[in-house]
Records
---
Amino acid sequence: MSTFLFRVGRFSYRRRWVVIVAWLVMLITAAAAGLTLAKPFESTVTIPGTEAQRTLDALAERFPSSRQHATGTIVVQAPKGKTVTTAAVHQVVDGVVGKARDVEGVTTVTAPSTSGGSVSADDTIGVITLGFKAKSNAEVSTTTRTALEEIADHAREEGVTAELGGAAAPKASGEHPAGQTIGILATLLILVLVFRSLRAAVIPFATAMVSVGLGLLLLLTASHFVTLQGTSMTLASMLGLAVGVDYALFIMSRHQKQVRSGVDPADSAGLAVGKAGSAVVFAGATVVVALAALTVVNIPFLTVMGLAAAATVVIAVLVALTLVPAVLGLLGHRIASSRLPFLRSSSKRRTKPTTLGMRWARVATRLRVPVLLLSLAGLGALAVPAASLQLGLTQSQGEALRAQRLIDEGFGPGYSSTLVVLVEGSPGTAVPAAEQLTTKIRALADVGSVSAPQPDGAKDAAVVTVTPDSGPDDARTKQLLSGIRQARGSVERATNTKIGVTGTTAVSIDVSDKLSGALPVYCAIVLGLAVMLLAIVFRSIAVPLKAAVGFLLSMAATLGFVVGIFQWGWLASLLGTETTGPVISFVPILLVGVLFGLAMDYEIFLVSRMREEYTHGRPAAEAMQHGFAKGSKVVTAAALIMVSVFAGTAVAGSGSTTGIGLGLAAGVLFDAFVVRMAMVPAMMAFLGDGAWWMPRFLRRILPDVDVEGERLTHRFAAAHSHGTQQPAGQSATSGEPVR
């Protein structure tokens, strides 16, 4: 592979304009297709096949009026000492109801009613229910939301508290450019410090933007044919930018060192792509495997999200192997210098071997047991909160959170966690079965109220509404849902009916349970695939197993950190978190997929340098130290770039984007700086030659991919030796000796 990639890199360098124009043509074509075929993204999360979703679909068929449309609320609270039935307050509330009916996009408005259960027991809080033309909350227009906000503002001016909830609430402020700008500036600063050249630092960022741009345009095109979540775009852009910069960084750092040491730039580009590019290919493959493996959990929106991100990573790898050397061809020898005096002098000093990485590698060798124990203790402490991980679908913020708090104050938390029971049978069995089940439900714990059965027009189906005493995220509500599903069995058998439970709370619980059950299976699959891939790359048994165990440790610490932030309220004042609550259900499994791929990236980039030194004949301990000294600076820079991108996205986004960004930033910190920078050298020193042992039968079976480029090194050295006897000015590789 390294020989093939050498040719690719050198061709791209020499035929730079052909390669650059080819990528531009692809961008223009993708832009035309994407902007023409793009469709709106889906905002709701559903998992076909769960009981709650099946029952919800059946409910829409039996009761057409219940077909899913966006709903919202305006929660009003009377001034202190008054009630919503007080004449002055009642007049204001009636005005809100009347004005809301005139808002474009609003189809139904239901005024607060004591008999309807939408006025609190003390008459101080009322709920105005709104129905919208839009089918989902995300489709409710900004114009409609703004008009409703103006109505609420007018009520506040009259002394009545009014808060908007559900689809009526203002959309999250969305992107905050300051966070993204800080992330980009931090990335550029790190690249300048690595390359000691401003023009060289711009290249990885520019080529990564090509990867992201092409990936997002292809996703827009794909949205015409498949349903995409808005989070798919965020994940693809975030991951594409991070790996795009990192992959270019690994290739360019080797190229720059080689040019500074006197290697011809064209040959250097080929060597950099042949050696570092081999690691990039396998590192990218691990990320793609981890993301594509989301398909096996059989959850449609996660499958699409994973494949979308995987496609962007594939593009980033191709850009690093072709476009990066092509752009390097525009710089030529200038890649080794800088026009800025302080960077120029610093780059000259950088030609001397650095000793910081070597010193730490020697410390890790001498103190390998304490380093391992301290790392385990630190990661273990951070992982403690993960034991209390709770999953949910949404987290209210801003005005929606204030509306929810008013509802909880006036009606109790169960008001927002209603369960809907659908009984399907015949005209003579549906209602009696519903009545029998109602009696059983009233005997269960945590039941606030149970409505009388409501039959459909044909009287072969009936609906019962159950209001718990506890909130939607409370464990008691989940127990009540389980209790209803257990109690229905005897009723179904006795009446020959079919009974299902649905509602927003039931859907959320079922989705969370499905994702929780899929997580261990997914982890086992990606770990197994990665161990096999790393065994091929390093021709070792211990290195892949060590990498997998290290990832499990860093992942446990990451989940603990996420739980600490969102459930326990760590850093709440710093992050501006208004409330604690469950972690959004799909965040953990996405974190596992992305972080696993990135962890294996760092493992490959770092350990491949150790392997390269070992194959050159150094003893195991010395090979680890020299390989770590050469690879640690670039891996550290790559990790800091990842953290900058992910943290910037977390600050810039909201909702699930914040959770994903913070989790990825923390996960990269834990994995890169604790596992790879501390535990890997300590464990490699502990294993010695055993790190590179593999049974003979496996050595014969597994292909030798030569990721360290050993064969390329020998062939290039032989070609260079032959080239020194050629006429002056003729390239050592002009005769194409590298095959």
Note: Residues 632 and 677 are 7 Å apart (CA to CA).
---
Amino acid sequence: MTMHGRTPRQDRTQARVRARGVAAVLALLALGASGLTACSADRPGPEKAAQALAEGIASGDLAGVTFAAGSPDVATINQVRTDAFAGLAPWTPSVEAGTAVVDPKDEDAATVELSYSWDVGAGKWTYTTTARLARDAEDAWRTTWLPSLLAPDLVDGETLTVERVAAERATVVGTGGTPIVEPRPVVRVGVDKTRVDAAGQDAAARALAGALGMDADAYAAKVAAAGAKAFVEAIVVRADDPAYDTDALGSITGVNLVSDTIPLAPTRTFARPVLGTVGEATAEIVEQSEGAIVAGDQTGLSGLQRQYDAQLRGLPGVTIRATSADGAAVRELFHVEPIAGTPLETTLDVDLQTTAEQILSAVTPASAIVALRPSTGEVLAVASGAGGEGMSTATLGQYAPGSTFKVVSTLALLRSGLTPDSTVSCPTSITVDGRAFENFPGYPTEHNGDIPLSTAFANSCNTAFIGARDQATQPALVDAAGALGLVPDASLGFASFLGAVPEQAEGTAHAASMIGQGQVLASPLGMATVAASVAAGHQVVPVLVHPVEGAAPDATTAATTAATTAATTAATTTAAADVTPLTAAEAESLHALMRGVVTDGGATLLQGVPGEPVAAKTGTAQAGEGDALHNHVWMIAIQGDLAVAVFVETGEYGSTTAGPLMDAFLRSAAAQAL
């Protein structure tokens, strides 16, 4: 009670009455002078103040909020909010103000419920807090500041902290569910600073670096900068890797060997350029993840492991606690268990992939073997040789396909009215706009002159195809290439390039296109697709990854899966809509012509391959100039429900360099099928 027997509320009300009375008298005087009448405006409700509070807490800037007398200044309140939520960064809350409820006994008092939502790991943390507001003499709504506005029962000095538990990373599987990337035993090798005194740590680091062929100065500096009891990892090796003598490494003073398991493929090289690698998240990955990944997390670093990381890594378990300033009092506010990742299903055949890599192991230049199943488009093998230095030559290489492209040129010629029996001219050379084109050295002279198109195809007569260029325009070549699956800019759900044929080319450029040179480009995957389309009798779209419906436990993965499926569908639809579809009759003619290459042409070495008859096409394309002039060599083949492309960046001819590799692969595939 006041000294006059009135409460503060009565004083506040009477003050407002007096203020409104004076204002009303002035208004009436003004209106009387003009002969007009009016009503006073409604008093403001608490809604805007409640909304400003919700927005200020969400953003971290509460400058737009009017606080009650006795509250800390806005800068202090902002800092309290920042400190309380700092442990949850980079997560930020979504805060919404509910309907403000005015006290039925006091129109100048109201409460509003603030609804919080945090996307954290494997769950969504939601809760509510209650704010109290009061209207002052100037009709402004003021908020009573309390730390409990930020989180349930939060008090001065308490802050929020988070503990994460990584989810189990899922495996990558191949055809039939065969595990490809799964946890495999490894040994982490490094200097353990608890095993050597400070004076000997530099020597230990340099000794280990020397044994591993590492930069000794850099590793020694890393050891010196680590904590007093740190284990400073130098390398992680497979437990059974014969390239490393872990016992000898462990005998170095101060070195420790730590057994562990990490997701690995069957071998160090197994489809590595395509599958990618897993390792500790980089700073860039952490920043881009917006809180989904933190420093120290294992994550995909490249290839499919990176592209489908959200699906594979799952969602971490999270525990959020309120901790007092001295750390003595800890309250658990939220907990959710981790959700394991979902396996990534690929179409790779482990045995065929291993075979392809073994065959390429002795090839020095960049090389590739790609195998597809024509009936489904499934990619069974995508092997890239060591000469590519880590690049996926199989799926991303861009090379002139040489005479393997004559499958495309022949389709264009067939569509112009020619048949395999049509006569074409195969001179020893042909000149176009002053440039002379010749056949490959050693071309069988008995097949010069006027010969059937089938013979020109089997023996790869360049001059015959160039001579027929007027019957296969450049747009016709583009259309035929698309019909056989060479679709530019196709999105297949993995990093890939199929091929590109210039839409416009005249003179020598068009002549070069007829024999797969000039500006025509293709990847081994693209040429395997051409062969697969011939075998299937329709355009084939390569499939390497099978998106799993419902596999994505979070929005990021769901979006990735949906985008991948949509992109693959779009590639198929676009290709089908933009090109003249390959007919069964056309495919049958091309298949017969390719069979002729094995029976009577440049791929006779494949005649002895066991199993169904083999059909093939050789290819050689010149690249470089002067002393750097060399041949890209190719061979594509079909056998039953198998289509294969073999490529070597530098070789002699398709028949002599790529041919033996193709023969070895087909024989091994036939043996595995038994």
Note: Residues 1-41 form one domain.
---
Amino acid sequence: MKNYSNCFVVFTILVMFLLLASQGILAAGLTINVGSVIAEAGDAVIIPVSFEDIPTVGINNCDFRIGFDNTVLEAVSVSVGGIVPRPTLDFYSYINNDGEYVSFLFADEEQQGNNLIYDDGVFANIEFKVLTDAPSGLTEITVSNVGAFADYDLNTMEVETIAGGITVEGGVVIEVPEAPILNSAVADDGNVTLDWSSVSDANGYEVKYGTSSGSYSQQIDVENTTSYTVSGLTNGTTYYFVVTAYNSAGSSDNSNQLSATPESDEPTDIGQIELELSQNTTTTTNTINPTYTLSNIGTSSISLSDVKIRYYYTIDGGQTQNFWCDNGAIVSPSYSNITSSVEGTFTEMSSSTSDVDYYLEIGFSGNTLAAGATAEIQTRFVKDDWSNYDQSNDFSFNNAENVTVYINGQLVWGNVPEGGTIEVPAAPELNSVEAGVGSVNLDWNSVTDADGYIIKYGTVSANYTQEIDVASSTAYTVSNLLNTTYYFVVVAYNEAGNSDNSNELSATPQDDNESTEFTIDIEIATASPGDTVTIPIKLINVPSAGINNCDFRVGFDSNVLEVVDVSTGDIIPRPALDFYSYINTEEEYVSFLFADEEQQGNNLIYDDGVFTNIEFRVLAGAPAGLTKITVSSVGAFADYDLNVFEVETETGGITVSN
């Protein structure tokens, strides 16, 4: 057995394979089967990795990875299995405990077809040590990546995989994780975007939601992410969301609940209601007892939870008041009692007049008023001391047209008294935007009658592609930003609607120039639809040992961009010999491979600078704003001794300006 260094023939085989595999050449299939055992914490065990149903043409070359959990296991050694004809010449392995994998490579180094694998059996044995603090239960060992299996003519084979593992007995007991904190639920057209806190020891998260508070009929396992957009929702329906964290021990309690109501960008008919009013006509009384008859005169059902009725009057004192609903019912076309869903709230007017200083708002906790249906609500309210009201000057007294009805905050019936209109708040003033490392701090003035604020921003002036509801705060830090210019506005909102945008301010987040980590850095450019633009891909803080080989992918949005060309950068010593690239538009990536073909350590990458340039064309009709270009996958970066480097990545992109 030997390591990967000094294997020019093997490298050539792999390059030939990559070129053939990209053309979709396939042959018969086989199975990689990972064994299973039982062990205790501290034990060393052998896991066989076997090949089954090997095609009769034999295996000329193959490469794959076995993945494991390094919080439970440590890979100690690898030995060759009995089906490999020449173990010391054609078999290669590499253990990477930090990366949680063992990689394997087999290739008939003579390339004469004389030393292929034909027989089913054990290809390799991996010795694992079970860590002393390993948790009880099954830890899986999987085939985490399959590169290529090919015959002598380099026809590739389809490969199935069977996972194995180690069942640990008597290990550490894993605790159920704590509940996460659900930070925000931002509604859009047909969807809601959620964001929550990360929880220690969580393996993943589950979003739960439904249309009734505290009742969650839908569940989505979003794996190990802390934000998610729930799509396919019904506009105008309020959804209630919680998040749970989970690990092998179970699921946490629910997070706090947040609600959001998706709304269409298109204007909608919220409904039509007609109101009739009856009440005692005595002007001096200790009990005001309006009865409201609501008729849905529109063509669509109305959710009564969206309906508010307001009765305006003078309190004639300052006492506490009490409300009762004596009877509430949908009376036609069929009878249905809804008394328990009727709620009443007293509100003192911010500015009083001779005929109004209070209003009673009646709402509903549920039920639906179908098109053509009628509901009757019998109510009464009194002061704590049962003293009299003088109704003679009350705005709504015995006058149905002076009782207002709102649906989703919009007035659909009645006259609003002076001072009783809920106005859309004024636009706030955005005072400052201060750029930080990957973030921007915003500060704005408070607006009277605002219930909350929304930050809107994007990478093109006056084109805001992102929104964050920050509730009632007047300062906020927008994070996870790139090193490009962003444009910000703030709007205030209340139940009457949203204000106009504030003034616009811009800021450019800083790069982390103090970072000393080895990084793949993608640049940012600005272009218009139809333009071609070159995006450099740089390597920064290249380790002093140099890069002997590396492979990674750069991802892009094919709905916005088309890759035109790839060229080598100036830090590659021998571009024509050691640099390879492959454009895959359908799967939206460009893959790169660099390897010193001589494998003598003479042609490594030592300098920071441009590794490659990708020329993109911005498609006609591309939307304005930033389209991100990311490092979508990193294989391995290694020095001459095949020590693997950790790699950071910096996202770039193209700001499309129409």
Note: The chain has five domains: 8-169, 182-260, 273-413, 430-507, 519-656.
---
Amino acid sequence: MADLADIIRNIPIFSGLAREDVAKILGKLEEKNFAAGATVFSQGEKGDSFYIIQSGAVQVVLNTAGGRSEVIAVLGPQDCFGEMALLSGDPRSATIVAVKDATVWRLSREDWDELIEKHPTWLLHFCATLSRRLTHAEKQYSQGRDTFNTLAEEFYGSRPSEEQEFLRHLSLLTTVDPKNVNVLLQTEKAEGFLNNLVKSQLPLIRALDGKGYELHGFFRDFLVEKLVAVEGKETRRQLHTRLAEIYHSLNIWDHATHHFIEAQDWAGATRILSDHKEELLNGSASFLKSALERISQDYFFSDLRLVHIKAQTLAHLGDFAGAVRTYKEVLARKAAGTESVVRYQNMADILVEKKDYVQALNCLRSALTLMEQETATLAGDVTELYWDRGKPAKAWQLSKAISGEASLWSRLLSLCSRFCRIDSPGRWIGGALGLSVWGYLWFWQPDIGLGPDALKLVALLSATLIFWIFWVFPEHGTALFFALALILTGLGSGETVLGGYASTTWFMSLGVLALGAAITGSGLFYRLSLQLVRFFPLTYHWQTLALGFMGVVIAALIPQKSARATIISPMILNLSESLGYKDHSKATTGLFAATFLGLGQLNFLYLTGSTATLLAWGLLPADVRAQFTWGYWFIATLPPTLVVIATVLLGVNLLYRPESQSRVSYRMVQNQIQILGPLSREEWITLVVLCFTVAGWLTFSYHKIHAAWISLIGLTVLINTGVLGWGMFKKGIDWEFLIYLGATLSIPSLLTKAKIDEWLSGFFSPFVLPFVDQPAIAFIIIALIGYALKLVFTSRLVVITLVVALSSLSSDMGISPWVMTVIILMGAEVWFFRFQVDWHTMAYATTDGKAFTYPLMCRINPVYALAYILGLIAGIPYWRYLGLMG
């Protein structure tokens, strides 16, 4: 170690220390070995240590703003690097890479700080030495730059004004390609001006290995100063924007991103980084990391796309700890989330301790996405995501879900739907159309076979329907508008119109939504899902069955489809990775297709299966609602549902055969169950309330307590035990739906009173009544009507429109109104294009688009359409047996 002591004393910053002081430093040194090509540290990383080379050699690499790397020095034995880390801890100014096998001694900043605490006088010596070195370096730098600026001024001043302008604009290019310099700088003389600069033989520009040229850094700075002085900062920004757009048109994504960032056009840079992430990641990950660090921090943390891209980039570069820090930093900046969010964070912490960074990052990604979406998602709708366009992350999640490869017809329908839902012109058109139809029917009063009051009611209903279709206002806001219009115009009394808010249907829905929020927020939902998956063997076919079964069970507990899909989707993605399936593969898509069977496609199986089902139940006549309790509803729908399940699971296994054999591993499931630990107090209380509620619903015939009051008892317990706190009570319950429900429950009675229901049924009776003696054909026709309306309407609108219009045909067909309602519910479930299902969008966004591709997922849609029809046909003899059909 004597040689090492001499080496340390010869290092300028330690040169004045006594031998005993040097000995103390020796005691803190740690020997490290780096193979040739290994990176000691990277530019931009936090400085945390100082190094002395014992043997071998390293090179100092500087990454420029344009994403290129330049070797600026090679260091050998007895050289040192990283000394500024001991004083400031600033990010590394360069990357150090071993040229050949190297052994170094490392002194960490923590150890140095410990020495400084004991020997504070060292710090004065250290600072004085650094100050002298910096002064000397600055003097040399200043002298060299002054000389260089003289050369630059002479050359620049000798050029005509047009060429001077070219040079000023040239300074904005990180590299100069003679092939496209004319296009970039928009002058035909650019190539000639460039040749003048190259032929000058001055050290103002240098060749880049046959790939164009690069201005000397001093010359670029000189020209940029001229640009700002002559043309102004705003012109400089505009030039960067123009260059970004030109590079974008040339598909040169890294340069386009660089210029958008220089122009401080964060949205433009984000668009390119998001759309071409994979190309940049595979081609220039270091540039991608550098670009993300140059974006405004406020903007960066406001757009989840950038956060996810940075975490993925760091993981791609092997910096998993940095990726974890990225997610944790943005989570710390946001308000505290629900228990589900906290649980994901806790799981990530434990997985990091186990060095399972991939699963930890999945958990953190899920926590962040869930926190961002929980207000809209747990409320069961995504209306807020369409309206709140000021939040780029949310807007992106929806737009990403409706972009990509698709048929022309799908793109056209998607565009129309988005125009109606998002764009202000679309809402204005919808508003104008609704008011025009209302005015025509209200004031003109055409002869369509209705009395004056009935015609006015149709006028209001038509305007409301158009407002709903075009999303002129939120659904619940439009429903309130409709209710108030009825009251203020005297078409209905307040007690009748708003009577839905005092109905058992409304209170039943409130209790069910509250129970669903508690199951979701307490973690019971996630735990149950893991246990169900664990129960089946970890092979593809068994897991599709397990996931389908899991979805069916979960659908009974939580009526919000978006909440179910958002929470379960990350778990399914983790399961797919645990089985060894790739993102976007057939196998991964198949697992999601099987899960979605229960999560969103079988809502008619349970009375509490979805908000649309609760709405349909509320629109039924009172005697039918009394007959169809929760248990009887399930019994009546079970056989046709089993046909649907069997058909869809068969389709999943045929359409999505895995490209590779699964890598059987229970590690993911076991890790997460272990992390969850025993049931918490909140989970126990929620489980007891759940069992009590379901048992109360099933035993109605014994105690005669209405299901609504059973639900309210459960709600009371959840509130008073603190399981359903005020925050979850506000966020977890779909208040928009409850407002919508209360304002629309009066529609059937009002239409019946005005005989509008008979008038509406007249439009559909020619298609249905000729097949009264052939119920299978009649059922198929009604289902197809639902399929067609679903292309334009939401599920709720399909249900409310067809239940009102077709219920009166039930008696003519000799079937219970409940059978008609189930047919309508099944018809409202099918989807053919991605814009038709908001809960699908949530699942896609929650997994950062890794779960499935829509071209693959859409293959199952015809199977669903066929399965529903087969289920309806299979239900005919069973419903006759139950006395629901003549």
Note: The longest helix spans residues 121-157.
